User: What shape does this take?
Amino acid sequence: MFAEFLQYLFTGITIGATYALIALGFTLIYNASHVINFAQGEFLMIGGMATVSLTAMGVPMVLAIILAVLLAGVLGMLLQRFAIAPAKQADVVTLIIITIGASIFIRGLAQLVWGKEYHVMQNFSSDEPIRIFGAVLNSQSLWVLGIGAILVVGLVLFFTRTLIGKAILATSMNKEAARLVGIRTQLVLMLAFLVSAVLGSVAGVVVAPITFTSYDIGIMLGLKGFVAAAIGGLGSGIGAVVGGLLLGVVEAMAAGYISSDYKDAVAFSMILVVLFFMPRGLFGAKVVERV
Amino acid sequence: MSALIEVKSLDKAFGGVHAVEGVSFSVEAGQVYSVIGPNGAGKTTLFNLISGLYTPTKGEIVLKGESTAKLEPNQLAERGMCRTFQQMQICMNMSAIENVMLGRHLKLRSNLFTTLFRLPSLLRDEKACRERAAELMEFVGCGDYLDTEASAMSYGALKRLEIARALAADPKVILLDEPAAGLNAVETAALEKLIRKIADQGTTVMLVEHDMKLVMGISDRLLVLNYGRVLAEGTPEEIRNNPDVIAAYLGG
Amino acid sequence: MLNRFMQMRLRDLVILAVILFALPLFLNNPFHYDLATQMAIIAATVVGLNLLVGFAGQISLGHAGFFGLGAYFTGIMTSNYGWSSVPALVVGAILVGILAWIVGRPILRLKGHYLSMATLAVGFIIAIILNNERALTGGPDGMPVPAFTVFGWELSPFGSYNLLGMELNGSEAWYLFAAVVLLVAVWLAQNLIDSPIGRALRSVHGSEVAARVVGVDTARYKSLVFVVSAIYASSMGSLYAHFQGFITPAVAGFDFSILFITMVVLGGMGSTMGVILGAVVLKLLPQVLADFQELETVMFGAILMLTMIFMPKGLLPTIQMAVGRRMKKKAGGQA
Assistant: This one.
């Protein structure tokens, strides 16, 4: 009984950590440019797929990961520079369509390069499952949680201690003012996308041994990351992490105790419930319109 | 004789800042009543409170003997109050005359069925509505722009259009929030004439303005706000000679 | 006594009718007709969605949910319960309308991305339910739907018909039917837009503050347009089900929802004719790109991005502005 509960909890926290990382990526881009990047999930996909294909070509694992993350990062910057920046003052809806177009484009490229099959990645460390109180924990889960935590701490330090991080925050609060004090906003925006892509791709690499990876896993994961970000409140980093973990756990519990067919519906039901009571998510900011 | 609008000890706090504090005054029907004061004095906040966009922290506003607490702007419109905005709220996705016709929204008689199938009753209502809107646009001086896209009109024309929209509902009281902002001397003189015409019709006009010449020339009574509080209230003559007002404006 | 708007609407409607009835000159085989029929049905759907997105300025990333519900209600009622086509369509539309009203009230209080999220969620939940309830819907494998029947007379893509002395095969007959449906859908939408209710709806988009002070109950009007667009979607979903003869849960899915909204944005939000153009383009594009096989997805994504970046107002408005400018130049040159 308890073992079962623990099992679901572990699964939930693991996938929740992934959602949290994707949600953080959304939040970062949203904060910097008020764009919801529907292509976020694709960075995840690139991280996993690139690593798999590089290691299959004989590249050592660590190098493969670095290259994969770099690839995703570059793609992120290109996305900002060539798809978002030119769109300037476009409508919210138009920007959504642009990022959706980008996600289709990236997925199409992935399909060309890597085909449509599923790929499997080896666990980073041992394949031996860890037993805790009767529950079985995949050792990779610890990697997910560990790396996730490191990334979150890294992000916090980045935004509070480094100049670049603060520049990103300044740009997000008031682009014109940031430009006036000498911040090169275009560069900053590309950086935001870079960091976001890195987050997503690392998440993709770490979680790939647990789920399979293929050219189209980005869609659902991206959407759930968006849901997690919205649950937590768009623009809130804490919200993204809390939202992600909460989503992962509730989803795992529902899949375990209620029905696994409706697992995906959990995320979407949760967001409706949360938004009903808190129209701006758990930690979202209140906005007052000046007339 | 009870006033059209009575404001009693009105208070509005945003966090720790009291934008409006302990404000009381009343406006008689048919008056031109102006609210003046330095920037940040709380004039627009006061307007937003009266027109239902903000909820008072304390105090009460009474319109025609009925408290306006808990009334939404659209409900206040039903009770005969219309307004214009400091930052113009024109629907740029419609034409000029459509904006004014929008002002007659509460006179709407059609329902979804007559609308979808364009029944004769709808056509009749539309014709009447359009004619009235065209009249009003003439009245405010926008007669040349009937079918022009709002997005193609000049700033001055749009300000007058907004007044036409506010008048379209045949309101008892119209609130004009800095109607002269951004207008040159010629346009301001035309505005003064327009406000006179509106008042002569019997509509009560409340005005928030910075342009002293306009305000002094046209108002029956004035309210002077400073830091959210009432500094003085009276006729233009009284206000002009009030030492506190002079001090506040000239920093004495 | 036609004012400027009525002239424009009549002109648009006439042009559309001419195009629709002249098109058969260019259609050579049942496949072409079928594609054209699909375009017409989907165009009618996005005309309804445009009311919500283009005119009232809201957003719906889950609209296929309503489309799918209409399709499945028709499918289930006509297949399993022997209902006749028209009652199934009408009752389905009413039920979906009620659902849209119930769901819309709380959702439409949300703004911006939260609204996107909520509509996305509703669409997904509907699609997931349709996918999982095998007993009722046949699950991911889908279910067959009988032909469209009115008073015992059947309209099927495989039948033969005689209209005013002309011999028509099933595909041609369905095309004509769909064309008429599209014209009616556009006429109704135009009537709605150019009316007091239409202005109230557009004011919600133009300036919600202005709408409120003028007396528009913005919450009620948002709900109203949400329900109307849902009814459009449901009705067209029902017709689509009859036409295709077979439906799967994909008809309510995310991809379809995104297709709808893309058609609206690409074609030109707030332009009834524009979104029809959007529907045609996005239905044709995969056909055109099919020759490129593996590159299809990449090219589709690229075309989507490029069009939205360089023509953010949508295809038709951009074309109209460009033509307008050329005409002005010509006029200026001659003066």
Q: What stands out?
A: Residues 54 and 269 of chain C are 4 Å apart (CA to CA).
